[in-house]
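Problem: given the chain below (483 residues), write out its structure.
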Amino acid sequence: MTHPAPLMPPSLSLPPLLSAPALPRIIQGGMGVAVSDWRLARAVSMTGELGVVSGTGIDTVLLRRLQDGDPDGHVRAALSHFPDAALAARTVQRFFLPAGRAAGQPYARVPLPTAERHRDAWELSVLGAFTEVFLARQGHANPVGLNLLTKLQLHTLPCLFGAMLAGVDTVIMGAGIPRDIPRVLDALAAGQPATLNLDVRGGDPVPLTLDPAAYGGTGAALTRPKFYPVVASHVLAGVLARKASGRVDGFVVEGPTAGGHNAPPRGPLTLDSSGQPVYGERDGADLPALRALGLPFWLAGSHGTPDALARALAAGAAGIQVGTLFAFAAESGLRADLKADVQARAHAGTLEVFTDPLASPTGFPFKVVNLPGTLSQAGAYAARGRVCDIGYLREAYRTPQGGVGWRCPSEPVAAYAAKGGQAADTAGRKCLCNALMADAGYPQVQRGGHTEPPLLTSGDRLNDLRDLPTPYRAADVIRVLRG
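Solution.
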């Protein structure tokens, strides 16, 4: 996979952040696996708005970049600044392939982490998050954010710590209720061990603890980043503002037309004639109630226009979060062939986005772009052999023997049922882990030479791409949004 080469300073270093920066009017959404990569976040932050890197799957992204030969040398250059030089050097020595992988060669896999055995995954997550934020901060002194999925509890602690080591300014988390994250940020900022509970179906939570001293921490205090949970309603915002484990600094308020995972509709699930969840007035946020909380908030979901930004500001919001327009910018990590195909179809006005109630193993509705050659097509879905070899969306469950097991409704049906899962829950489930890696140009080669297909997600207004030139850059999006 190739990217436009950024203008990098002769030597990499951590720039100081500007003191007391104004709140951004535009937050670039944290999208997919390495779609919101460091190049895109850096380009947005350089305009003075908030660029955001995606921390989802960052351990596997780092691993695969090294195995692809790190052609521009940016990953190894960033790792040379990691506080634990021995850990960084050991990781490069273990996984870096100077000539990249041979054609058809699978990526090396790290053993799937568990609550008891996760050292490899945590080391790579710390290093990957550090690398992504470090590179996004090069060449400017503006803030950079990190986006995580609350559902990925097993990887949250190391991602937060690695990003904080690199000076991340803001953490944004959705796909769940991140009530305990403020306490975690406080502990890590103080150089102290941080604990986060892993939810276990059918049993009590299992505490996970990260000691900074074991993963590159020096004992020195780190800057505590701002924390913006993603909420779908003013009710949840109010609960987090009052009952979170520490300081909440603002909210991203996401409507059901936003890409990626959506909050389920409130009340009983009803599907329309095409099989999509039906959202109503109860699923919208009460903006006066949000304003009454006294914290800044940004509106997300079909807000990627100058008029939408103006309306958001007039309603008392600090601004908007925009994903889709940035996902197809030249700097994003999305594969070039997928960008070109989507942009051509957008200009023809033929793109369709389907809110799939079944696709995601999480159970949350998930926006899927109907695009040939991807898992959105029934034939491609049927032809793919089920395998769970990355495992971010696995669910922890209590076994009959009292231990903690792991299962995912997108894994082989017989394996899921053998672990106590209901076979009916596997219908329509798609392996987002492998598909989103493929979106960013890191598809696994499975047994028999089968290469994992992609699956694109987007907000409902994907056809708005026709209003932008082809190709376009992140700065073009900023200019359009600013009017």
